[in-house]
């Protein structure tokens, strides 16, 4: 059996729960531009247009996003289990004939369910990606993300559905934008970045024990890796096995 077929068999099903945001990353099979090439503005503009056409079509509520030459990142709440998958598939169908002329994505997209307490950190993580890649010096200077919306430099209510965790950052738009600007300036800590990326690439839930326990009855599968080793015997079980 081919190795890729074995890998497909070992894949975990998608983790989904109703009304719970997902952080999603889909990497392109080939970057739209190399490190020292000019920014592919026309392609990025098209991708932004297509992204919101697909999310509107699937009724996916977008809380934050970033499009880079090598990937798309989305923080959103889909209304049903296959909403995000259909958005990514729709993007692939649009990109293949007009931009990539072949395979679009590098394998499966990665995703994690996000607890409300982690929403601001996930927004900052996604919107700071262009800075970490050396494309710009501040997140708000990259026009192909939601950073400009969140700090008050741009406003398009038809594209973003702000999450409650963002609204609770201040009682007025100015207060929210100022507080979020401070968060962007500070950046995600190394521990936060590690937690986000471990959950995203491992495709487990991002949150505390209470959040993961809540997903036990609502999620499509377990939200955290199973403990290693054999299950512990109940107290008083002295059964001898051969």
Concise structural overview:
Helix content is 41%, strand content 10%.
Overview of this protein structure:
α2 (41-57) runs antiparallel to α3 (83-100). This protein is α+β, with helices and mostly antiparallel strands and 242 residues long. It is built from 10 helices and 4 strands, in the order αβαββαβααααααα. The longest helix has 18 residues, at 83-100. A hairpin with a 2-residue loop joins β2 (61-68) and β3. It has one domain (15-216): Alpha-Beta Plaits (2-Layer Sandwich). The protein has a 4-stranded antiparallel β-sheet with strand order 2-3-1-4, with helices on both faces.
CATH superfamily: Transposase IS200-like
Arithmetic mean of pLDDT: 87
* Count of structural domains: 1
Q: Supply the number of helical segments.
A: 10
- If you consult CATH, what is the topology? Alpha-Beta Plaits
CA(first)-CA(last) distance: 35 Å
Shape: globular
Helix vs. strand class: alpha+beta
Order of secondary-structure elements: HEHEEHEHHHHHHH
Strand order of the largest sheet: 2-3-1-4
Q: Roughly what fraction of the amino acids lie in strands? A: 5-15%
Portion in helices? 40-55%
Radius of gyration, CA atoms, in whole angstroms: 20 Å
Record field, number of beta strands = 4
CATH architecture: 2-Layer Sandwich
């Amino acid at each position: 059996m081919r190795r890729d077929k074995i890998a497909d068999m070992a894949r975990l099903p998608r983790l989904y729960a109703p009304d719970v945001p997902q952080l999603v990353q889909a990497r392109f099979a080939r970057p739209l531009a190399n490190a020292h090439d000019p920014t592919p503005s026309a392609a990025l503009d098209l991708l932004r247009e297509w992204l919101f056409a697909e999310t509107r079509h699937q009724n996916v509520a977008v809380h934050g996003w970033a499009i880079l030459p090598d990937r798309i990142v989305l923080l959103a709440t889909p209304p049903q289990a296959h909403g995000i998958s259909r958005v990514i598939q729709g993007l692939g169908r649009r990109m293949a004939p007009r931009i990539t002329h072949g395979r679009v994505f590098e394998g499966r997209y990665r995703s994690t369910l996000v607890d409300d307490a982690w929403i601001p950190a996930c927004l900052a993580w996604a919107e700071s990606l262009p800075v970490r890649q050396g494309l710009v010096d501040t997140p708000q200077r990259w026009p192909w993300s939601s950073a400009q919306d969140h700090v008050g430099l741009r406003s398009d209510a038809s594209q973003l559905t702000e999450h409650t965790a963002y609204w609770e950052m201040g009682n007025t738009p100015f207060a929210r934008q100022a507080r979020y600007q401070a968060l962007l300036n500070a950046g995600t800590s190394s521990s936060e970045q590690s937690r986000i990326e471990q959950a995203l690439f491992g495709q487990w839930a991002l949150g505390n024990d209470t959040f993961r326990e809540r997903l036990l009855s609502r999620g499509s599968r377990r939200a955290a890796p199973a403990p290693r080793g054999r299950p512990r015997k109940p107290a008083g079980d002295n059964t001898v096995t051969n």
